[in-house]
Design brief:
Elements lengths: L14 H11 L3 H15 L3 H4 L4
Helix pairs in contact: 1-2
Length: 54
């Protein structure tokens, strides 16, 4: 299976912008937004909980 290539005139300033751009180009914007929301949710947790500390 060959994956499509995504080219942009200019890349976004953040990796989040780039993920949204790729999602839009691949008609998967909703999935890109779900990934970003899950990332934000994990990032908001206290550091100890992220690594499994008690």
């Amino acid at each position: 299976m060959r994956l499509p290539s995504v080219f942009a005139e200019a890349i976004g300033e953040t990796w989040e912008d780039n993920l949204r751009l790729a999602g839009e180009a691949l008609n998967r914007s909703a999935e890109a937004e779900e990934l970003l929301a899950a990332y934000e949710e994990r990032a908001d947790r206290p550091a100890g909980r992220r690594v499994g500390a008690r």
